Amino acid sequence: MQSLQGQLLIASPHLPDPNFLRTVVLMVQHDDEGALGLVLTRPTELTMAAMWQEVAEEEIEDESPVFLGGPVQGPLMALHAYKAAGEIEVLPGVYFSSDKDHLETLVRQSIEPKRLFIGYSGWGQHQLEAEMDAGGWLLLPADAELVFTTDVDRLWKDVTSKIGSDIMRSTLHLKGMPTDPNLN
């Protein structure tokens, strides 16, 4: 089995789980034991400032949203670009952390870009592969720009457009396809 770490999972209409409707998930870890990912398209109403006040009882000035990483409860987690606080390099320039000291460094030093997550997306052994075989997920390589985009609606549109273009190109055996088919 090839690891899907660093790939984006895009929920297809065939995925029956409503927790993942219109989601883009970054795969943080994937091996024979299972998989862990974080939903990039679910900002919450909770701000970083409010969350940090609750967690560390400290005031910070960061009104960016905390994201809901998935339906599984877990520790506070972060995706960021600060190698020194990285526990896993998910893809070049994108690191994952859940260690309290690393999270404190990211927040207290106002390191950007970063995203904090409550909850995560988790799959047991072979569960994700079964969902993919059933057509529930589509794959796309991730990059730091997509991971850290601040416009989550645009992220959804960009990845679904890219997948649609890739499917059309491979189905029609086209070498090139204009971004706007009306230009044809």
TrEMBL record:
InterPro entries according to UniProt: AlgH-like
Coiled-coil ranges per UniProt: none
SUPFAM superfamilies cross-referenced by the UniProt entry: VC0467-like (SSF143456)
Family statement drawn from the similarity comment of this UniProt entry: Belongs to the UPF0301 (AlgH) family.
UniProt xrefs under Gene3D superfamilies: VC0467-like
Alphabetical list of Pfam families matching this protein: DUF179 (PF02622)
An example Gene Ontology CC term for this record: cytosol
Protein name, per record: UPF0301 protein Enr8_33660
PANTHER family cross-referenced by the UniProt entry: UNCHARACTERIZED PROTEIN YQGE (PTHR30327), UPF0301 PROTEIN YQGE (PTHR30327:SF1)
Source organism (scientific name): Blastopirellula retiformator
